[in-house]
Design goal:
Strand content: under 5%
Number of helices: 5
Oligomer: single chain
Distance between the termini: 47 Å
Helix content: over 70%
Number of domains: 2
Length: 107
């Protein structure tokens, strides 16, 4: 049953994407729909990352010792400073892990 559910969800996702990506299909989106869908990825990332950053222990944590909050601020700063997504992601991940290791009592 679980296998059928996974295969079914995979088919739904594949067919949904195929309908918009296959150039031979006569399905076209209007410019307003394309503009609206442009906000989908940032909205989805915010919905996923927001609770992780601001509520790591299932309660609001705006403490400067919160490694998720500090790491995300470093990531935003690096992106604004370097304009390079890959370098910013790698450096902010290194900062996050070092900061978390340091906050948990470096061995």
């Amino acid at each position: 049953m679980i296998f059928l559910l996974i295969v079914g969800m995979g088919l739904v996702v594949f067919l949904n994407r195929y309908a918009f990506l296959e150039p031979r299909l006569p399905l076209r989106l209007s410019s307003n729909a394309r503009q609206f869908l442009g906000f989908a990825v940032p909205g989805m990332l915010t919905a996923i990352c927001g609770p992780i950053i601001f509520m790591p222990n299932h309660q609001l944590d705006l403490n400067p010792a919160n490694p998720y909050l500090v790491g995300s601020m470093v990531a935003v700063g690096l992106v604004l400073l370097t304009r390079n997504t890959l370098i910013s992601m790698l450096l902010s991940m290194v900062f996050f892990f070092v900061f978390r290791w340091w906050m948990n009592g470096a061995a």
